[in-house]
Amino acid sequence: MTERAAAQHERLLAVAREAGVPVSPITDRAADGLSETVTPQGIVAVCALVDRPQETILKPGAKLVVVLVDVADPGNAGTVIRVADAAGADAVVLAGDSVDPHNGKCVRAAAGSLFHPAITRIRDVDAALKACSAAGLRTFGAHGYADTELDQVTFDEPTAWVFGNEAHGLPQAVLETVDRAVKIPMYGRAESLNLATAAAICVYTNAMASRAATT
């Protein structure tokens, strides 16, 4: 922590020391070198990785899971993790060639939510979908050309939402594997929605419907 940051965040410094976390003073130049941002805050931490083995989180009892398949942009991935957290999702699965959730931009886009829902990485997409099904989750694939629209779906079972790459969407093999492909109805003239917006609509629609059904 830089001298300036220590003065601005005295409570954080105190909490760290109370928790037994070693805190070392660094120069502004060192903070610049250690940070990926243009204007670093002057605080740098060494943390354990947050992702967990799939078998510890994809098990019966999960109600809502978000699966990202080959999502390349760390800002999008972090934003979807934040959406999943806000909607009360149990877990986020980064499948295939999806970006590392520990990527600096992904961490910043998640705005703290990286530490709330369980996070797991599964390289094999088919294995990820099978793990969701084995956990009793119905799988919905977000697809702009699906026959079923979001407002036609009932959310009376545990669900895993599957979202694809920003440019290419979900591979055909995935669309053939999920229980149902679902599209967001478009009422205006926009051709499509970006990944994070689409995920927010689908996941929140699911979460609100499920909550309403249990209250």
Question: Can you give me a brief rundown of this structure?
Answer:
The protein has helices at residues 3-8, 10-18, 28-34, 54-57, 74-86, 104-110, 125-134, 172-177, 195-213; strands spanning 64-69, 91-95, 118-122, 138-142, 148-149, 159-163, 180-183. It is α/β, with parallel strands linked by helices. The protein is elongated, with a radius of gyration of 20 Å.
Sheet/helix structural class: alpha/beta
Count of DSSP E strands? Answer: 7
- The overall pLDDT average reads 94
Element-by-element helix/strand order: HHHHEHEHEHEEEHEH
**Rg from alpha-carbon coordinates:** 20 Å
**Based on CA inertia axes, which overall geometry fits?**
elongated
Strand composition percent:
5-15%
How many H/I helical runs? 9
Q: In which range does the helix fraction lie?
A: 25-40%
End-to-end separation in angstroms reads 47 Å
Largest sheet: 7 strands, parallel
Low-confidence runs:
none
**Order of strands side by side in the largest beta sheet?**
3-2-1-6-4-7-5
Keywords:
single chain, SpoU_subst-bd, tRNA_m1G_MTases_N, elongated, 9 helices, methyltransferase, alpha/beta
Polypeptide structure, described:
The protein is of the alpha/beta class and 215 residues long. It is 38% helix and 15% strand. It is built from nine helices and seven strands. A seven-stranded parallel beta sheet has the order 3-2-1-6-4-7-5, with helices on both faces.
Write the layout of secondary structure elements.
Layout: H1 3-8, H2 10-18, H3 28-34, H4 54-57, E1 64-69, H5 74-86, E2 91-95, H6 104-110, E3 118-122, H7 125-134, E4 138-142, E5 148-149, E6 159-163, H8 172-177, E7 180-183, H9 195-213
Helix pairs in contact: 5-6, 5-9
